[in-house]
Amino acid sequence: MVLKDLNKIRINKLYKVFGPRPKKVMSLVTQGISKSELLRDHNHILALRNVNLAIQQGKLQVIMGLSGSGKSTLIRHINRLIEPTSGDIWYDNNNILSYSSAKIRKFRRENISMVFQNFALMPHQNISQNVELGLKVQGKSKSFRAKVASDWIKKVGLQGFEKYYPHQLSGGMRQRVGLARALATNAEVLLMDEPFSALDPLIKTDMQTLLIKLQKEVKKTIIFVTHDLEEAIYIGDKIVILKDGEAIQNGNSQQILLQPKNDYIASFTRRVNRGRAIKVGSITNSTEHTYTDAECNENTCLEEALKLALKSPEKKIRVINDNNDYVGFVDAASIMETICEPK
Ligand SMILES: Nc1ncnc2c1ncn2[C@@H]1O[C@H](COP(=O)(O)OP(=O)(O)OP(=O)(O)O)[C@@H](O)[C@H]1O
Ligand SMILES: [Mg+2]
pTM for the complete prediction? Predict the structure, then answer.
């Protein structure tokens, strides 16, 4: 039996060194020289060190890390805006480093779309024209472009603004245009480099909710860069955390919050509202049956589960999954402990 590889993108042993002679300093890098030493003593910048990442088809992979940790460098390797110093990148089991420049152009036109933090809209083109841009590059007919653009403008909530120009829109609206433009190309993969980080908090939340809603419908493979862990937890199926160019941990939000790999990851998670971010299903460990009249779904956040558990005379809650199967129970004291005491 041949197992189907569900990974859309695989990144293997990726290293990126910036400087005049990156290959020359690679042996120092593989021997473990630190980023600061490499800069101080050898005048090269270590942007990525031995990054391995498999990104599943149809999932949203977040790349997280502080400024300078290598997020943009990593995402830009995926459409070959940046060439690796060493390592390889696979797309649907094709090595994209072996692509000719013509094939790369086709790949960028048809398979991959990018959404940027600064929106990157054409100032002298109206919203419809901006959304049609990628389709125009793909050589699609005028009537097809108009239809697809109008559909996406509606889906991102900008109906009525078709003839407006970017400067007439707010930041949030402009980023809706950016999103519509990327989705209109029907590319399989969306690369999003801090697309919402310039937006006001409330608008940012609206955009995250819109992205989740559209993603449920189109099921693209999305790679999303952010330095905001709350955002990563809200939207990401998986979150990889980079530090000085190294991928320290890759996992879902519950693994990052409940099993941080080291103190660095734990320190990242300290500011997170655990009552909201941790799901009760993640801390239900006893499958033993018990009596309590409180019940909730496994995806309920701890805060809600705690309220329900405290209302029950038994001070515990039964947890069920989407199929109404019993998953286990958890008592109010354990919920409180998890909310209050991060490891
Ligand atoms: N073209 C370049 N030439 C030299 N050094 C670079 C270049 N691009 C990035 N770097 C360096 O590589 C490292 C990673 O940078 P990168 O832009 O990928 O970080 P980032 O995580 O995206 O940061 P930010 O959150 O500020 O956008 C940094 O030390 C940066 O200074
Ligand atoms: Mg960046």
Answer: 0.92
